[in-house]
Design goal:
Shape of chain B: elongated
Order of helices and strands of chain A: HHHHHHHHHHH
Pfam families (chain A): ABC2_membrane_4 (PF12730)
Distance between the termini of chain B: 42 Å
Structural class of chain A: mainly alpha
Number of domains of chain A: 1
Largest sheet of chain B: none
Organism (chain A): Actinomadura rayongensis
Helix content of chain B: over 70%
Number of strands of chain B: 0
Number of helices of chain A: 11
Strand content of chain B: under 5%
Largest sheet of chain A: none
Keywords (chain A): Membrane, Transmembrane, Transmembrane helix
Keywords (chain B): Membrane, Transmembrane, Transmembrane helix
Protein name (chain A): ABC transporter permease subunit
Oligomer: heterodimer
Structural class of chain B: mainly alpha
Helix content of chain A: over 70%
Order of helices and strands of chain B: HHHHHHHHHHHH
Number of strands of chain A: 0
Number of helices of chain B: 12
Amino acid sequence: MNATIAAMTYRAMLGRRRALLLLALPLLLLVLAVVLRATGGDDLDTSVQVLEKLAVGTILPLLALIAGTGVIGPEIDDGQIMYVLTKPIPRRTVLLTKLAVALSLVLAFAVVPGLLAGLILTGTTANVAPAFGAALLVGACAYTPVFTALAVFSRNAVTIGLLYALIWESLLGNFAPGAGAASVQQWALAVADALTSASQVDATVKLAAAVPLLLAAALGGAALGITRLRSLTITGAE
Amino acid sequence: MSTSTIHDIGYRRYDGPRLGRGYLVRSLYVHNVRAVWGLGRPARAKVMPFLLAAVMVAPAFMDVGAVLLTDRAEVLMRYSAYAIYLQVVVSIFVASQAPVLASRELRFHVVPLYFSRPIAPLPFVLAKFAAMVTALLTMTAVPVVVLYVGGLIAKVPHPLTHLREFLLALVGCALFALVIGALGMAVAVLTPRRGFGVAAVIAVFLLSSAVVLLVQNIAEFRTNFSLAGNAGYFAPFNLVDIVQVRLLGAERTAEAVPDGFISGVLALLLCAALVGGAVAVLYRRFRKAGLS
């Protein structure tokens, strides 16, 4: 960990109007939760739908994508990363610091609001809120390193991440059960499924398979990112 | 005693034909259309747009194949529904390519170079917008054409109905291209940092659609059909669907649409306002960038 790199990364992520973009997504979830609660639409079916489709299915991957790629992608693109890489700091430290910043942002803007929305919608019924909080947490820990590694590997990281999160996980996951097995979203839902007694939560992957896969995604993403950053060369812009 | 003179050092004047402003705008338009597809750029700029275009037409080909194999005309997808079924692909396309047009010049501070030529900000911006709309029209209309031609080959019954639906769906595709392109470009020009533009555009499309679908599901569940219909005004794909259903006589594709001819007119007005607003946002941003 390096405090200077962390501070610079926070400034790049939250400076000017960028914090608003990060804030808008969870705010929408919370507003929806409050409105549903106020109008009495917060039965368990709807609540699980909101938490599953909106919190775990949309906001978590989007924020992990924005934060995970945003901490390192733009710097690699415009070559500014050279000023960091030429300092006598191990590249491992550079990547892990940026990863930690990204993870903290995802925690603040996706996991905590998701947990709050769960509490607003369901209270303590059947442990749904803590279960989804745990699912969001493990999901964040798996998505963020994968997307950060992707940003070190490719300039099209955001688009590739979108293709994976939206087309592979959401569209194919619904039609082809095989695609669901290779999906962070389903692994995270498996954790939620194991923690709650509500029958509405259902994952296509068993917990015993999901936990090692989540670990592999988190550690593998970080390791791949470090390996690639070690031998990174900067080519011309675009 | 002033003896200063301007020396004629023999440069020749240009007195050939001048190509004029129309030529400038046309060149910018062509350049921007090429930029969307990554033509004239390295291969890695071409990968994404063409991959997404392939993903966009693949279901149409598969569907036509299914019609030909099974000989069942009802398997053919509705032309007007295609862009809505594949709205995720259209959204990713506009999210990944709108920043190419809307923010690359801003990021590298080269806009003043364009305005040192005889082109005003408005035609400049309109050329960019038209290029985005053209690319999106290609994305949405080509699969519909594939479906229609496939239907002709499979000799589906009621050819005249199909022709009418096909032509109206093409109008719908044009409207999709205008609305989606406008929203995408406006959001992209406001977030010039690389990566953020893509994320901001996709967030606008995805979340508006997801929230509207959720509200419509809940409203229908509680038999509040007017709320379910009116929610459609708040997501771009639903907005165009309202126009398609109420003004172009298409079948409903979204979860719910509001009743009556007047709601179609309202949706069309909202589309026009969206396009006008987006052009205004682009104009203001590029004019400001051109002054610095």
